[in-house]
Amino acid sequence: MTVVRYEPWALLNRLRRELDDSFEPAVRDASWTPAVDIHEEAKQFVVHADLPGVKPTDIEITAEKGVLSLRGVRNFEQKSDDGHYSRVERVNGKFVRTFTLPENVATDQINAKFKDGVLELTIPKIAKVEARRIEVQAA
Description:
The chain is mainly beta. It has helices spanning 10-21, 25-28; strands at 36-40, 44-50, 59-64, 67-74, 93-100, 111-115, 118-124. It has a domain at 31-77 and 91-128: Sandwich (Immunoglobulin-like), CATH 2.60.40. The longest helix is centred in the N-terminal third of the chain and has 12 residues, at 10-21.
């Protein structure tokens, strides 16, 4: 009788890899995902992203075509006298997070602050443009 090792998450992990492969290369190459909280206030949205070990100069924020993107890299210098680790849990490498922005935000006024490993973005709201009916006149 052959013992078959059961991996309960194997199918889910395979599905995740397949989905990751269908996205853009930058997203596919991301090696970790920072935790993000988004809070809506009356006049703005506030985004907090946990980026411990990331330098502010290694963070790129873009907002275009209704999409907010956070990209960057975290590098730890892992040193060991004998070159052997018993356990390594801190993840190095690139990260990418993208979010769809609502239509009523001023992307040209987004403000970013970085303190104690937490990135804070404030995204001001603007008055929503109401749809209007355009009357067609006979020529």
